[in-house]
Amino acid sequence: TLLYTIKFEVDMSVFHGKSLLKQDGTKVDASEVVNGAQVIAVYFSAHWCPPCRGFTPMLKEFWEDNKGSGLVIIFVSSDKTEQAMMDYFNEQGDYWAAQYDSELQKALKAKCGVSGIPCLAIVSKEGEMLHKQGRNDVAANPDSALETWKAMY
């Protein structure tokens, strides 16, 4: 008799088969980006939101200080148009964004239970929310936030 072993893996990640954008509009495979990360922070924001416009410069500085440390930040826009989203994204750090009005954008909002912005959620490589208080961490303890998040994985 012949015995076959079939390995069947289902990638349950919200990132599987999806793309992320860079500021220049280039698309990158979302799974590759998150699989290489030690920490994935998802930034829910919009240009029309005053608290967001206040937090974005802090997050941009945090990104600049930590971008070589295994941190991935993904911007998820609540802007009303794709142009507004891209204009606002280009003011931020050189990280990644979920495409405007995409399945990925909707899935991350749902998995993280976003009801207000700005929100910085730390998620697993599958997109499951691990911690919703990233904004407070960056504002109050920027020097230790990344290490705190790494301990969640």
What do these coordinates show?
There is one protein chain. The protein is α/β, with parallel strands linked by helices. It is built from 6 helices and 7 strands, in the order ββαβαβαβαββαα. Strands 2-1-5-4-3-6-7 form a 7-stranded mixed beta sheet, with helices on both faces.
Question: Helix coverage percent of residues?
Answer: 25-40%
Q: Low-confidence spans: pLDDT under 50, at least 5 residues?
A: none
What count of helical segments does DSSP give?
Answer: 6
Determine the structural class based on helices, strands and strand pairing. Answer: alpha/beta
Calculate the terminal CA-CA distance, rounded to whole Å: 44 Å
Radius of gyration: 16 Å
| Gross geometry | globular
Sheet with the most strands: spatial strand order? 2-1-5-4-3-6-7
SSE ordering: EEHEHEHEHEEHH
- Strand proportion, as a percent range, falls in 15-25%
Integer average pLDDT: 93
Q: What is the makeup of the main sheet? A: 7 strands, mixed
Find the count of extended strands (DSSP E, 2+ residues).
7
Topology of helices and strands:
Elements: E1 19-21, E2 27-29, H1 30-35, E3 39-45, H2 50-66, E4 71-77, H3 82-89, E5 96-98, H4 103-111, E6 119-123, E7 129-131, H5 134-140, H6 145-150
